[in-house]
Amino acid sequence: MRGQSIGWPRQADAPRESEAIGGRLVGCATSKPRKDEAVPASAKVEGTTVSAPTPGAPESARVRSMFDAIAPRYDLLNHLLSMNLDHGWRRKAARAALSFGTVERVLDLCCGTGDLAIELARQSPAARVFGGDFSLAMLARATRKAQRIPFSAADALHLPYRDAAFDAVTMAFGLRNLADRALGLRELARVLRPGGRAVILEFVPPGRGLVGAAFRFYLHHVLPRIGRAISGDVSAYTYLPQSMEKFPPPDALRAEFEVAGFEHTTATRMGLNGVVLVCAQRRP
Ligand SMILES: C[S@@+](CC[C@H](N)C(=O)[O-])C[C@H]1O[C@@H](n2cnc3c(N)ncnc32)[C@H](O)[C@@H]1O
Predict the structure, then answer these.
(1) Whether the predicted pLDDT of 263 surpasses 70
(2) CATH number of the CATH domain containing 190
(3) Is residue 211 part of a domain?
(4) Is there a smaller number of Cβ atoms within 10 Å at the N or the C end of the chain?
């Protein structure tokens, strides 16, 4: 069963790995918790059970179909458009997630085609690495690349895992796409054990100055043309710079993590200041 079950998990046929860590399986396709599901504990702790879409964020259904459409060319474009810098960013993120106490179970959420999950498994062969994403086309590619890692369907806004199931959770370039970022961060906190670590990689608005201006030119004028030529998708690679510009800068992002139930949050810019690495610890 390992590495082959990529459909939406159901209580009856959930892979053993999911049962071991989960049991709180919810209907991902509707993006709504089942009526008999308890409201996530972290939401209650934060005193906010009501959630609303993040202003300017795309709808989940649109994001999912966009990634389903570009899945066949995703890896090629990822490496090309980042000039292969993305490997180094994921290596750093994996190191940050694993170099923090005992990490036996780690979830790579919004795992896409699996590169960060694969890097986590490479750096820590003893850890049990899981991958989750809501695009089945992306998951199919991940499964083909790493049969031994259990990749399964998971909506980041309603995760099919029990509370405190993981020692670490990573997410590379997924947070920007969530329709409700506050809810996504609370879900991350919920599935982490107290003291567990979240490590996020994300594109952020480029800084000011000459480097920032050059980066903006590349983002808005060069990247969409290459993306369109190779993927054949007209909107996906204009969506990337647009969503980047709307994403909060590192300081504001850090504050959002603290509100969601994290502490000791750091946000470090890298990659010509257009990428941020956030590390945060789940509050006990
Ligand atoms: C830019 S890709 C990043 C993939 C991979 N982490 C990487 O580093 O290449 C964003 C991924 O997030 C996934 N995603 C976006 N919103 C999601 C959600 N609400 N739940 C689960 N996955 C989501 C998309 O399907 C896509 O695979």
Answers:
(1) yes
(2) 3.40.50.150
(3) no
(4) C
Q: Contact 204/194 with Cβ under 8 angstroms?
A: no
The best mutation among 51, 133, 240 to test binding of ligand 1, ranked by most ligand atoms within 8 Å of the C-beta, falls on 133
Number of domains in the chain: 1
Amino acid of residue 44:
K
**What is the number of the ligand 1 atom nearest to the C-alpha of 28?**
20
Q: How far apart are CA 145 and CA 118, in angstroms?
A: 9
> If you average pLDDT over residues 16-23, what whole number do you get?
37
DSSP line for 185-249: HHHHHHHEEEEEEEEEEEE----SHHHHHHHHHIIIIIHHHHHHHHH--TTHHHHHHHHHHHSPP
For residue 282, what are its two tokens? 């789940």
25 assigned to some structural domain: yes
- Range(s) of the domain holding residue 73: 16-200
Region of poorest pLDDT, from 151-155, 186-190, 229-233, 258-262: 229-233
Instruction: Determine the Cα–Cα distance for residues 236 and 40; give it in Å rounded to an integer.
Output: 32
Residue 243 lies in a domain: no
